[in-house]
């Protein structure tokens, strides 16, 4: 165990060890737009400005918070696979605790943080379509495609030397472009009911612009500015 802690990630693990924390260039301020027009901006148009495009290979990291069967909250970091009018997507192993959580209680929160900005999405969770799951796997880096096959408790329990050898052998047996999603590959979409954009400033207090979906009103959203 002592030798493992000093090992650094090897190159090529795109999507995990790449700089996914870099903030995209933002041109729209939710609070400024609400103040200048007196009308609520479209929250999904703001999401499109705050988040990288779906075809950007550097996917942002986000904290996925769920409610465990114990009643305690749980949280872990996942990649934002893509987003659209239906919600924000993430993909994971169907045997994971997060899947158990959202299956039992299909509600979750997503949090993304950049310097001076924060985005929190609260919503209902549902399973992504088979077509979307297949497409999302195809867009994953080679490292993440292999990880979807090998990331098991049994693999984690192996000594480092065996993990390295098993990983290398699996890569040799499955050339780049030959892998399909394993049966444990699962995708989910978080359909927002509340979206909160936090904007910070060094010269005054930060503020939050919060959008809340109106119950039973389709795509109608309420908007308010609250303390940060």
UniProtKB/TrEMBL annotation:
The keyword Protease does not apply. Its cofactor is FMN. The keyword Oxidoreductase applies. Keywords: Flavoprotein, FMN, Oxidoreductase. InterPro entries: Pyridox_Oxase, Pyridox_Oxase_N, Split_barrel_FMN-bd. It comes from the Bacteria. Residues 59-153 form the Pyridoxamine 5'-phosphate oxidase N-terminal domain. Pfam families: PNPOx_N. This is Pyridoxamine 5'-phosphate oxidase.
